[in-house]
Amino acid sequence: MLIFYIQKYLSESVSAAKSIHITFSLRREDCPPVKLGDEILPQKNVVKYLGMHIDRRLTWREHIKTKRDQAKRKLKDMHWLIGRQWSLSLENKLLIYKSILKPIWTYGIALWGSASHSNIEILQRFQNKALKNLSGAPWYTRNTEVHEYLQLPTVKEVIEKSYKN
Fold first, then answer.
1. What is the DSSP letter of 56?
2. C-alpha dihedral over 129, 131, 133, 138, to 10 degrees?
3. What confidence tier does 12 reach under pLDDT thresholds 50, 70, 90?
4. Which of 47, 53, 73, 89 has a Cα-to-Cα distance from 112 of 20 to 30 A?
């Protein structure tokens, strides 16, 4: 009786139309097709689960690029508020950065923090541009000077801090 109930429950709550099959592997070939009931599940190389873009090889490149693009769009939308020429104080601009932009790119950092250096640099470049823009620093200012002046950690330092916690 219990087996019948579990099968009935699974057939009612799990839908092949809403499911995706992903194989986590370093190999290039695909896994044999997976069926749910009589339907074959579609196979993808990248899936989105709880806001995280998980790719087949767990490189986190797709997730990092997506978060960078989201943060860029938000920065562009707020340019009228935190741009170079606006008179909002630096403290308030930093508060906006910390409360709106930083949570976008730090989402899921405990998982994607182990990504390769080249993928993490994608977010570091975004952070450098955003901080120079809101601080009004000229283009030739070193990124380390901007971080020291604003007393903000780099992306790698944020990752290290999240690992220690």
1. T
2. -90
3. low
4. 73
